[in-house]
Amino acid sequence: MTELTIEHLYLTGGIALLLAAVLPRLFRDRVITAPMLMLGAGAIGGLVIGADGLRPVSPLSHPGVLEHLAEVCVIVALMGVGLAIDRPLHWRTWGSTWKLLLITMPLCIAAMAVFGWWAVALTPAAAALMAAALAPTDPVLASDVQVAGPTTGDEGSAEEDDEVRFALTSEAGLNDALAFPFVYLAIFLASGDAVRSWLGGWLAWELLGKIAIAVVIGAVVGDVLGRTLFRFPIAHARLAERGEPIAALAAVFAVYGLTELAGGYGFLAVFVCAVAMRRIERGSGYHEQMHGLVEQLEQVLTLVVLLLVGAALTTGLLTALSWPGAAAGVLLVFVVRPAFGWLALRRSPDLEPRERAVTAFFGIRGIGSVYYVSYALTRADFGAEAETIWAIVSFTIVLSVIVHGAGAGWVMKQLEDSRHEQPAPA
After folding, report:
1. Residue 56's pLDDT is what?
2. How confident is the model over 265-299, as pLDDT tens digits?
3. How many other C-beta atoms lie within 10 A of the C-beta of residue 172?
4. Domain membership flag for residue 92
5. Which of 25, 208, 267, 348 is the most exposed place for a label (fewest CB within 10 A)?
6. H/E element holding 82?
7. Total structural domains in the chain?
């Protein structure tokens, strides 16, 4: 078979750039989505090139390659999600978000970990990693069920009042970081050390300390950047007035790097930074410019990752998938997430029963799960179970891309049409 070279990577990048400009618009609200096509194209490419040719970028042999690609993809997406949210941060107005994060997510992790240990016969460490990696909903692949982007003036009211889109968008922006403590839990379990030797540190640092650091750094940096962009004393030096959206990328990498150096969760800091920046001059059109640049980069990176994952599917990534492992993915998509999502939202006054069901069901899994598996496998030895974890997680991602992707456009349209048909209150 042909050995994969740097020229192949350049070719893949060029194709991804072209497709990123065309596919999202061409297949928006269609049954066949751009992510499906890229997974399919990658799978076909894997059959043509072969396992030997793709070994340099295989997540099984080189998880670090996919880790860093997925990492950049997720942090760019989180900046875009934070900029897209029109609703100011408040405990009451974000009520659906907190319920999904504090009730649905922990219950999903617990249920999947128990199933992985009991039915798939994974060790506690591997079961915890599988559950943690599949816990976060994806800010990258969920564009059809999320808010479209930052809006100004009268345009903002429709997006702000759509509780389904808001809940799914804000959930995806926050739970990518909140899965990290449980990934570390799996890493500690894999170390073989006695639980009592690290449990206190995990609770104090991984579960609480790193989150606090990320929130503080993200909020402070976002506020400073926002004031610099919009209210800098020298008018002609304000990037917002000059319309240079590159500041969004500067914020992404600066706040992420600073937070990681400080020991916090960079994913969370990036999202908080974007929300804090949006708070300054909320109605400015500059937010749309920054969001547009971030969205374009996100689409390119997403398609590259999906091409590689698709190629890996046909070159050995699913070899270790068993029937119980496949059942884990099916259970998460069709039972666990919808059930616990409904449970968390059952008393949400802002959601009608149909809206509650849609919000509970569309917990899309994707690039974040790829990152977390890669991250853990480069920092702890999970032995032969690494292949099983990859098989289950990749199968679940493909299932989610197909099921959620095919239904998102139609379901959201039906939901919006039903709202328009409701009689106005007297």
Report:
1. 52
2. 999 999 999 999 988 887 788 888 888 888 888 88
3. 28
4. yes
5. 25
6. helix 63-84
7. 1
Cα separation, 270 vs 265, whole angstroms? 9
Q: Write out the two tokens for 157.
A: 């009211």
**Residue whose token pair is 């609480």:** 208
Q: Using alpha carbons, select from 401, 396, 404, 390 the residue that is nearest to residue 312.
A: 390
Q: Is residue 35 part of a domain?
A: yes
Q: Which DSSP string do the residues of 295-357 spell out, in sequence order?
A: HHHHHHHHHHHHHHHHHHIIIIITTT--HHHHHHHHHIIIIIHHHHHHHHHTT-TT--HHHHH
* The pLDDT of residue 12: 62
CA angle 179, 180, 186 (to 5 degrees): 100
Q: Are 38 and 367 in contact (CB under 8 A)?
A: no
Token pair 């990152």 is found at 371
d(CA 371, CA 376): 9
- Is-contact 78 249, C-beta < 8 A? no
Q: What number of other Cβ atoms are within 10 A of residue 362's Cβ?
A: 27
The confidence band for 142, taking pLDDT boundaries of 50, 70 and 90, is low
- pTM listed for this prediction: 0.90
| Structure tokens that stand for 43 in this block | 């799978």
Judge whether 141 and 367 are in contact, CB under 8 Å: yes
In-domain check, residue 340:
yes
What's the pLDDT score for residue 1?
42
Q: 312: domain range?
A: 6-419
426 part of a folded domain:
no
Taking only the tens place, the pLDDT of each residue in 97-130 is: 999 999 999 999 999 999 999 999 999 999 999 9
Does 262 or 41 have the greater pLDDT score?
262
Q: Contact, 124 vs 189, CB < 8 A?
A: yes
Residues 411 and 426: their CA atoms lie apart, in Å, by 28
Which amino acid does the sequence have at 239?
Answer: L
pLDDT of 197 higher than 90 = yes
Q: What CATH number is given to the structural domain containing 51?
A: 1.20.1530.20
For the chain, give the mean pLDDT.
85
DSSP string for 263-285: TS-HHHHHHHHHHHHHHTTTT-T
Q: Which of 240, 319, 267 has the alpha carbon at shortest distance from 79?
A: 267
Q: Mean per-residue pLDDT for 241-254?
A: 83
